[in-house]
Amino acid sequence: MTIHPTALVHPSAVLAEGVSIGPWCQVGPGVHLAEDVHLVSHVVIQQDTTVGARGVIHPFAVIGGDPQHGGYKGEPVRLEIGADALIREHCSFNRGTPQGGGVTRVGSSGLFMTGAHVGHDAVVGNHVTMANNATLGGHAAIGDKVFLGGLCAIHQFGRVGQGAIIGGLAAVTRDVIPYGSAWGNHAQLHGLNLVGLKRKGYGKDQIRRLLAAFRELFEAGGVFAERLDRVADRYTDLPEIMEIVAFIRADARRPLCLPGA
After folding, report:
1. Would you state the pLDDT for residue 37?
2. Is 58 a catalytic residue?
3. pTM for this one?
4. Is 121 part of the annotated catalytic residue set?
5. Burial code of 69-107, b = ≥16 C-beta within 10 A, e = fewer?
6. 38, 58, 69, 120: which one is catalytic?
């Protein structure tokens, strides 16, 4: 363990083996840094935050700050970050609120570029990339392997399903299906995340069937609910399509990001 002489570490902080804390960092009360966490310099971890093993946090990031919520009165709330997170300069991750369950959760192996913001009570999956200044409102739910483009914003309580991609500058006010590709202001669904699917090893035949199901669900005529039922019956052998169906059915009251809507 190495702690620079200019760093301030609260006596209640728990530091595991191999932790490295650079110059001018502040580590507050109730903070747990797991094995081989590295705070480069000028990092503030305010309080009641867990950072998983091998996490690297760059200068001027503020992690575990108070939730930006007018009703917060200092109650005990937390932030939990998984292993292998790479958090670049000026990022801000807030702790939860009592109204939202008290915990903001960020998964493992995430890449958070300069200025990314994770709001209170958000849930962020594993292998998520947030490009420069991407922003999550409070209670946002982001699935695994999502890519959020620079300067995009996910509305509070918004959901982005696994494997989706959000374009830069997109204002996302409606839920985005798993594996979807959404961009624009306000964001519209423009198909599936074909680049992501190809990078994950999906073959041409798999992608062709996924596109056929997508078009039947979102581009065919008739009542959307009936199309959803039809796709659910016809594509039971495609787990990605069934995940999209389950995502939509999980909260049918929420507005869905649609093509041209």
Report:
1. 99
2. no
3. 0.96
4. yes
5. beebeeeebbbbbbbbbebbbbbbbbbbbebbebbbbbb
6. 120
